[in-house]
């Protein structure tokens, strides 16, 4: 039965946008509707996981080329495009991300005591950015999404961390990751400069 549906569900940008759509739906629901928020959250995360499995079913193992490639012109004068696709390694990272998100959300249902709606939104945004990181084929887009993951992770650690020093842990996570990212940013800019020339 899945083989019949597969040709209609092979859009990587849809996989990236699905968790963001779920977070937008949750955003408009009042905090008092906890059951509805839980239901939408778990169903969105499960649908995202099942959606990622379609890529595994349609993936061709006998080629080394990137598959499910999409290109959207973004900054044509700099040759910077929204260029995404997956290979054999990134496919399993995408599936791992979409598999772990429902587990993290289920754990969050019972361990998170305050701001549950915001917790679910932060996790969906993080999932979307992680999927985009693993699908990025353009260096600048990869860097932008990689750095964007820091924002929801900083909030998740700082607000819902398990220890007294969670704020300090969030700042340390952010600073250590940012220091490594500055070197990466320098290399991205050098690469872009040589590409433009």
Characterize this entry briefly:
The protein is mainly α and 197 residues long.
Description:
The radius of gyration is 18 Å and the shape is globular. The protein is mainly alpha-helical. Helix 2 (12-27) packs antiparallel against helix 5 and helix 5 runs antiparallel to helix 6. The protein contains 8 helices and 2 strands. The chain has one domain (2-143). The chain has a two-stranded antiparallel sheet with strand order 1-2. A hairpin with a 4-residue loop joins strand 1 and strand 2. It has helices spanning 2-5, 12-27, 34-58, 88-111, 116-135, 139-148, 150-160, 166-196, and strands at residues 67-75, 80-86.
